[in-house]
Predict the structure.
Amino acid sequence: MGRNNERNIKIHNDKLHKEQDKVKAAKALRKEKLKQIVKKFNENKADENN
């Protein structure tokens, strides 16, 4: 019995894709938080100018 059988490959790929999804979700969350920070900063900057 080899180590590279279908079941082991599927388990490995599932773990890999799960980790990739985590990274992708974290990246999207950081991007969204940055958008909110920039928006708030711009609002504060506009208030100071008026």
The longest helix spans residues 6-49.
